[in-house]
């Protein structure tokens, strides 16, 4: 599945780990493939206004439908972020 507005990236099923995003083409050094702060965490659509998860304040969603659809995958991350009190660096996620 090609992610909307992200040429060269695709979603894949990572089994028990949930979904993954991987490059679908060779990338140049420094090329941005995915900017998590500008897309819905569920459907990966770019939106002008996203709604934050009320619990962890990290994940962003188009609407309640996307939040609900992603909850099974997000709930562990959500609990961990609340427990830590901050979002871990990209290297930890």
TrEMBL record:
InterPro entries: H3K4_H4K5_MeTrfase, SET_dom_sf, Znf_MYND. Pfam families: zf-MYND. Residues 40-78 form the MYND-type domain. GO terms for molecular function: histone H3K4 trimethyltransferase activity; zinc ion binding. It catalyses: L-lysyl(4)-[histone H3] + 3 S-adenosyl-L-methionine = N(6),N(6),N(6)-trimethyl-L-lysyl(4)-[histone H3] + 3 S-adenosyl-L-homocysteine + 3 H(+). PROSITE patterns: ZF_MYND_1 (PS01360), ZF_MYND_2 (PS50865). Keywords: Metal-binding, Methyltransferase, S-adenosyl-L-methionine, Transferase, Zinc, Zinc-finger. One of its GO terms (biological process) is methylation. It is an enzyme of class 2 (transferase). One of its GO terms (cellular component) is nucleus. Its EC number is 2.1.1.354. It comes from Mola mola. This is [histone H3]-lysine(4) N-trimethyltransferase.
